[in-house]
Amino acid sequence: MIFSMKRRGFVKTLVALPAATGLAAQQAAQQAPANPQAPAIPVPGGRGGGAGAGRFGQGNIPKFEVAQPDAIGEPTQRFFTPAQFSALRKLSETLMPAMRGLPGALECGAPEFLDFLLGTSPAERQATYRRGLDTLNANAKKQFNKSFSELDATQADAIIRPLLTPVPWQYDLPKDPAQRFIAEAHRDIRTATVNSREYAATGAASGRRGGFGGGGSFILPIDPIYKG
Amino acid sequence: MPAKEYDVLIVGSGHSGGMAANILTKQGLSCLMLNAGPESDFDHNRVNKAVYDLPYRGFGKPGRLPHVYQANEFNANQWVDETENPYTHDPANLYNWVRVRLVGGRSLFWARQSFRLSDFEFKAGDLEGNGQNWPISLADLHPFYNRVEEIFRVSGRKEGWPEFPDGNFIEPQYGPDSDSIKKLSELGKARGMKFSKMRSSGGQGGLASSVNLLLPDAMATGKLDMVPNAIVREITTDKNTGLASGAHFVDRHSRHERHVKARVVVVAAGTLESTRLLLNSNIANSSGVLGRYLHDQIYGIQVVASVAEARDGKRPQGLMGGSAFIPRFRNLKKEEKRNFIKGYCVIINSGGGANPSLFAEYGEALQKKVDSYAGSCVSGSIFGERPPRYENHVRINKNVSDAWGIPALHIEVKDGDNERNMAKDAADSIEELFHAAGYDIVSKTPSFYPPGYSIHEVGTARMGNDPKTSVLNKYNQSHDIKNLFVVDGSSFVTCGWQNPTMTILALSMRASEYAADQLKKRAIG
Fold first, then answer.
1. For a designed S-S bond to B403, which of B27, B84, B164, B322 qualifies (C-beta 3.0 to 4.6 A apart)?
2. Which pLDDT band holds residue A207 (cuts at 50, 70, 90)?
3. What distance in Å separates the CA atoms of residue B59 and residue B73, rounded to the nearest whole number?
4. Average confidence (pLDDT) over A50-65
5. In b/e form, how buried is each residue of A106-140, taking b as 16+ CB within 10 angstroms?
6. What is the pLDDT of residues B460-473, one digit of tens each?
7. Hey, is the C-beta of B364 within 8 angstroms of any chain A C-beta?
8. Once rounded to an integer, what is the mean pLDDT over residues B255-282?
9. Nearest CA to B277 among B67, B478, B81, B109?
10. What values do phi and psi take at B186, rounded to 5?
11. What is the secondary structure of B170-219 as a DSSP string?
């Protein structure tokens, strides 16, 4: 496809297009060969081609008011074992509790979201989490003869505090596997919490602005590869 | 219908290709620009979204862009998809090749820091005694820098320091520095650190890109045909003359193969894509150094300190805020003996907070810490120069191809002691400066990102006077093929500590005017 200039903006100029109809013609238009001498041919509209294609794009399809999946279903926990997930919930509640009128990690569904996120993550990161949660349970068993999720706040602190380390740089995490896990999990639990709909809704309701994960300009897929 | 023969084929539409098109079309030459990617239209390609409406709550799809640390869930679609465009490296030697394939390339997204190289970089070989000089000096590029700075509306403060050359700047009205910066500036003098201000391209309408500053004028001449989604597979040469004759390209969508003819070929696809194209074309490498001397800059080194008087929300008026820029101050004299060559710059920012990860705390206690330090911090972020090394190179990996069957690059780059020693010196020197000011050190990070992260990769088709040790001459012209020019960062001999964009633009402008002159004289093509 050739582009020419009008004023100071780029204006697409269709320069060559094989005679075709419907979708086939539109696809061909996107693929018009680079031939600046070829005359412009208008793009035909109307029906899509092929058996069963039917009529489409006539503007007569009603728009329904629909419900969102997150609003009508409970998250299904799939990745962690029940023991690991219980430990993750306890860790989330401890590291990022509800405070100052804002919901904590549990209220924001951070553990359930992390179960989803880790379930699609690279194997190394999955192993860091699985090992880390198993370590929390093992340490709790050793020190208090309980699972990590059964500990009170003082007991949980006794397990977690030795593993806390300052992390100046996220690409230089602690070498110790348990410390590394806590560093990663702490960052992830905080992010999953403040970037949640629940956190934003509470912040907005209380009139606070900023610091709630926010939003931004999302770039859509730009002319993805044509797959036929 | 026979294909048209263009005066010039330009491969790539970023800053270097845009500048080539701008100059060559104004000289009345017919140009064809082939772009590997589509046009971006931010009116239609962007929508505002809340982070909680993204499937991954801002984390991004795990593993989607493993080499692009700059990627997030908002911008993930702007980067090159590695499943379509793979490259390889030894797992032990990570290389982050950060790419954009859109009309305008990475010029759509750059940080706009706008510096000239100085003769401490152009003549680095003299200073360091290793002979790695550019074949040009600052004086050669000075008039071109001037014109580029005017187009890009570069703002900055003139200083008269040879290691930080002044330019054709718009000089903003700078307010007084905050007391926290003034103190550092005073202390810096005894340490050889000179405090200036950031130099930056203003562009137009918030954009300083090829697509708004260079290509519109080229299109307005009526001399430029621009084709998006045209991936150049190979530069072709004439069997009789050995000169470049055009290129084979493949349509990104249909995968149809085509050939275009041109009297001159200007390659401006970005350092590594340009070199990949030359290697795949098996041309311009009589020296054997094509693909060699890949290097960029070390990023990530940072020191953060807190000013006690500004903690807990006190922040006396005038104490905090603002920024400063310290250009290279190391190894400016031959007699300076350190355990590294070359240098680094420092960006100082005052008035920020501390990241929660800097404290070994959690819950309410952590929040109190974060609140206490908010607005009290001073940071020093350091960018340093990696030396060009012969062994750091790229080559074609014949076993891996992209989605269009074009062989991919294998990248082999290792950091050395020079980088590590420089990073340590940088972190130590800024820590010592902050400490001398009485600021409490919060964190010190001498670590740096893997090669490529800076997105300032240069070299691999370096220029030089000797055809046996360089790919291009001082006009970015192939020593081997006189009607072939490579006008992007691949021509660099050394990258310096500076953002390379102004130098790439100036080189492309100079090379394009030279090419136009040679074409008109029929000395080439």
1. B84
2. low
3. 6
4. 66
5. bbbbbbbbbbbbbeebeeeebebbbbbbbbbbebb
6. 999 999 999 999 99
7. yes
8. 98
9. B478
10. -65, -45
11. B---PPPPPHHHHHHHHHHHTTTPPPB---EE--BTTB-SHHHHTHHHHH
DSSP H or E segment with residue B412:
strand B407-412
Give the one of B49, B361, B445 whose C-beta lies nearest to A218's C-beta: B49
- Residue A180 half-sphere exposure toward CB, CA atoms < 13 A: 15
Q: Could you tell me which residue, B93 or A59, shows the higher pLDDT?
A: B93
On whether the CB atoms of residues B165 and B123 are closer than 8 A, the answer is no
Please answer yes or no on whether A219 and B254 come within 8 Å at the CB atom: no
Nearest CA in chain A to B260: A34
Residue A167 Cα, gap to closest chain B Cα (Å): 5
Length of chain B in residues, anyone? 525
Say how far apart CA B291 and CA B285 lie, in whole Å.
9
The answer to whether the beta carbons of residues A113 and A195 sit under 8 Å apart is: no
Q: 3-class SS at B282?
A: coil
pLDDT, tens digit (0-9, with 9 covering 90-100), for A147-197 = 999 999 999 999 999 999 999 888 889 999 999 999 999 999 999 999 999
Contact B357 A36 (CB under 8 A): no
Cβ contacts of A162-166, under 8 Å, gap ≥ 24 = A164/B360, A164/B361, A164/B362, A165/B360, A166/B357, A166/B358, A166/B359, A166/B360, A166/B443
State the distance between the two ends of chain A, measured CA to CA, in whole angstroms. 18
Ramachandran sector of residue B406 (left: φ over 0; alpha: ψ -120 to 50; beta: rest): beta
* Dihedrals phi, psi of B72, to nearest 5 degrees: -140, 180
DSSP SS3 for B30: coil
Lookup: tokens for B508:
């492309």
Q: Which residues of B touch A4 (CB under 8 A)?
A: 219, 222
Q: Check if the beta carbon of residue B418 is closer than 8 Å to that of residue B342.
A: yes
What three-state secondary structure class fits A142? helix
DSSP B406: P
What's the CA gap between A212 and A74, in Å, rounded?
Answer: 23
Contact residues, chain A, for B102 at CB < 8 Å: 222
Name every residue whose Cβ is closer than 8 Å to that of residue B89 and which is 6 or more positions away in sequence. Answer: B95, B410, B411, B412, B413
Measured CA to CA, the distance from residue B462 to residue B387 in angstroms comes to 13
* Beta-carbon separation of A225 and B367 below 8 A: no
- pLDDT for B176-233, tens place per residue? 999 999 999 999 999 999 999 999 999 999 999 999 999 999 999 999 999 999 999 9
All residues of chain A having their beta carbon less than 8 Å from the beta carbon of residue B76 are 219
Tokens 């100082």 map to which residue? B348
Structural tokens at position A92: 């989330």
Summarize the confidence of residues A201-227 as an average pLDDT: 79
Question: Which position has the token pair 């230089």?
Answer: A172
3-state secondary structure of B496: coil
Q: What is the DSSP code (8-state) at residue B358?
A: G
pLDDT exceeds cutoff 90 at B512: yes
Q: What is the largest CA-CA distance in chain A?
A: 83
Q: And the tokens for B332?
A: 């400016």
Q: Which residue does chain A place closest to B100, by CA atoms?
A: A222
Nearest CA in chain A to B218: A5
DSSP assignments along A169-215, one per residue? -TTS--SSHHHHHHHHHHHHHHHHHHTSHHHHHHHHHTT--S-S--E
A195 → closest Cβ in B51, B226, B447: B51
Pair B322, B351: CB distance under 8 Å = yes
> Any alpha helices (H) in B234-302, and if so which ranges?
271-281
